[in-house]
Design goal:
Helices cover about 25% and strands about 25% of the residues. It has about 475 residues and is an alpha+beta fold. The protein has three domains: about 60 residues, no CATH class; about 200 residues, Electron Transport, Fmn-binding Protein, Chain A (Pnp Oxidase, Chain A, Roll); about 110 residues, UbiD C-terminal domain-like (3-Layer(aba) Sandwich), CATH 3.40.1670. The strands form five sheets. Strands 5, 6, 7, 8, 9, 10, 11, 14 and 17 form a nine-stranded antiparallel β-sheet that branches. A five-stranded mixed β-sheet has the order 19-20-21-23-22, sandwiched between helices. The protein has a four-stranded mixed β-sheet with strand order 1-2-3-18.
Length: about 475
């Protein structure tokens, strides 16, 4: 099932008992965060999407925890479970290792073009619900119930958005999920980090001698598009192309009313404007997905030129903070979808896991079939050379029989199998913008841990012990007797 807009998605969740409408009066300052956090981290049978219909001072309801369970995230992306994303993408791309460097490079180009080949690219329409109301004169951000999430946040932040820009040279669209702090009624601080596509468009616009970069902040739309803004795609691939493939029909667009951009026609709210390349403002602190407050720093300023919206819009938001939170489920979808793409470049990888406690960029656990000395280290370096995986702070490599999603089993293998003198690789390179541990911003040490079994060719001559396991015949005999045991 696919959804045209946020309203359809909410109706589906309500019909399946996965939406709670909250009629009690609540404040957008801290209260919505506390309620959403309790619901996500509480009993799973009470974990539902939340629609706050009586936000103090506003007629616009606020929706949170939309993707806060695997069931809701799966429904948003049109699959029965998140593992199906892996299978769908694997079916789309050919995972056979090409022969020869020329073929390998050609496969890389296929990766860039593969989503274009399915014929589900964005389409233009003349009008859309997102422009049922147009505020082109004196647009005021104060009309929106933007949340203050945590006590020491510097202000109110838009947290679940699609920020649209175009490369000023090639015209390629980028869609990113970059939080925005409300500075005043018509200015926002744009928190796009140095490694992200929006920041690259800013650099290119500056190099081209431009003073402004047109941009649009999209709130809502179909849930696949809402999620796709967070997907770490190559720069040449439009995130809405991925959304169209996931929902099995194109995303429809309308022209902005004040900027030379297109925005999803089915969005709830669109804030149009431009980034002033000569202006920066202090953004933050902000209680971030790392579980820590991100320090205040200067970021570009977005000037609002128009606000358009549906007649009865819904304001979507996500709450981040001490993990796990909703973004852990969104990240799980990314992990499953991108496994086949990771295996195109590193086919020896069988599976990988980025646990919520690692906040995406702090830990990658990799399962592989080791075939030669140094193979685990080759995989570590390969991962550090792939897109935003370059920011992975720790990579742990385990054998092919280990379940990388079972953290107890992984810890058992790491703590029992690693010679800390020989099996640990320390490298230096780029770090995530939010990493606070390194003394140098954006650059520092990363670690690779080879937790695989060691063989003579690895320089280990003692003889590796065998894992304790019951014989198959006993397992089958006990299986046959299990019911009569009364256990």
């Amino acid at each position: 099932m696919s959804f045209n807009n946020l309203g359809e998605f909410l109706r589906h969740l309500e019909q399946s008992g996965d939406l709670a409408r909250i009629n009690a009066s609540v404040s957008r300052d801290l209260e919505i965060t506390e309620i959403s956090d309790r619901v996500f981290k509480g009993p799973q049978d009470r974990n539902r999407a939340l629609l706050f219909e009586s936000v103090e001072g506003f007629s616009i309801p606020v929706a949170t925890n939309l993707f806060g369970s695997e069931a809701r995230m799966s429904a948003a992306l049109g699959v029965e479970n998140l593992e199906q994303l892996n299978h769908r993408m694997a079916h789309l791309v050919d995972l056979k290792l090409p022969r020869g460097m020329r073929a390998f490079l050609a496969r890389g180009m296929d990766l860039v073009n593969v989503l274009r080949s399915v014929g589900l690219g964005p389409t233009k329409v003349r009008s859309g619900p997102c422009q049922q109301v147009v505020i082109g004169q004196s647009p005021d951000l104060n009309m929106l119930p933007v949340l203050k999430c945590w006590p020491k946040d510097a202000g109110r932040f838009i947290t679940l958005m699609q920020v649209i820009t175009r490369d000023p040279v090639s015209g390629t669209r980028n869609v990113g999920m970059y939080r925005l702090q409300v500075l005043d009624k018509d200015r926002l601080a744009m928190h796009w980090q140095i490694h992200k596509g929006g920041a690259e468009h800013e650099r290119r616009a500056r190099e081209a001698g431009q003073d402004r970069l047109p941009a649009a902040v999209v709130l809502g739309g179909d849930p696949a598009s809402m999620w796709a803004a967070s997907a770490p795609l190559p720069p040449e691939v439009d995130e809405y192309l991925l959304a169209g493939w996931l929902r099995k029909k194109p995303v429809e667009f309308v022209d902005c009313v004040s900027q030379p951009l297109e925005v999803p026609a089915e969005a709830e709210i669109v804030v149009e404007g431009y980034v002033d390349l000569n202006e920066r403002a202090i953004e933050g602190p902000f209680g971030d997905h790392t579980g820590y407050y991100t320090p205040a720093e200067p970021f570009p300023v977005f000037h609002v030129t128009a606000i358009t919206h549906r007649r009865s819009p819904i304001f979507p938001a996500t709450i981040v903070g001490v993990p796990p939170m909703e973004d852990a489920i969104m990240g799980k979808a990314t992990e499953r979808l991108f496994l086949p793409l990771l295996r195109i470049m590193l086919p020896e990888i069988l599976d990988y896991h980025m646990p919520p406690a690692g906040v995406f960029h702090n830990l990658v656990i990799v399962k592989m079939k080791k075939r030669y000395p140094g193979h685990a280290q080759k995989v570590m370096h390969g991962i550090w050379g792939l897109g935003l995986l370059m920011l992975a702070k720790a990579i742990v490599v385990v054998d092919d029989w280990v379940d990388v999603h079972n953290l107890s089993q992984v810890a058992w293998q790491v703590l029992g199998n690693v010679d800390w003198d020989k099996d640990v690789l320390v490298a230096h390179g780029p770090l995530d913008h939010l990493d606070h541990a390194s003394a140098r911003k954006l650059f520092g040490a990363k670690i690779g841990v080879d937790a695989t079994a060691k063989r003579p060719e690895d320089g280990y001559d003692r003889g590796w012990p065998e894992v304790v396991a019951m014989t198959r015949d006993i397992i089958e005999r006990v299986d046959a007797k299990w019911k009569e045991l009364g256990l």
